[in-house]
């Protein structure tokens, strides 16, 4: 009985994590647009040399990884993309290393929770696929 509950909660967690990336990528694509995302990325030194390239890479990475996680496909690999995206977002948006501005600790904590869930998904979801 407990194993069945764990599988159910694991599936719910995987679906929510997939939607987290898929929805944010689709919002960037259809609402904010490539111009808005590249404007956001141009303020970060790491991405300022080619903001349109990084904007498209970010949007496609979020959409593809979100869809793959929802489909339970190659979680070991596709969960790495959200980890990278969220670590960079934590450093440059939450902690605000780009402008050495005010740290938003609630954003940092929420990103860390999501990162830890993606790490668990990559580890344990991949074992389930074998």
Mean pLDDT: 89
* General form: globular
Based on CA atoms alone, the radius of gyration comes out at 16 Å
The number of distinct structural domains comes to 1
Q: Helicity range of the residues? A: over 70%
Give me the number of helical elements. 5
Instruction: Tell me how many strands there are.
Output: 0
Structural class: mainly alpha
What distance separates the N and C termini?
Answer: 23 Å
Which residue ranges are poorly predicted, with pLDDT under 50 across at least 5 consecutive positions?
Answer: none
| Major beta sheet summary | none
Which band does the percent of strand residues land in? under 5%
Please write the string of helix (H) and strand (E) elements.
Answer: HHHHH
Describe the structure.
The protein is mainly alpha-helical and 130 residues long. The model has no long low-confidence stretch (mean pLDDT 89). The radius of gyration is 16 Å and the shape is globular. It has one domain (2-129). It contains five helices and no strands.
Write the layout of secondary structure elements.
Layout: H1 2-42, H2 51-70, H3 75-78, H4 80-94, H5 105-129
Helix pairs in contact: 1-2, 4-5
Keywords, please?
mainly alpha, 5 helices, about 80% helix, single chain, about 130 residues
Q: What does this entry show, briefly?
A:
With 130 residues, this protein is an all-alpha fold. 81% of the residues lie in helices and 0% in strands.
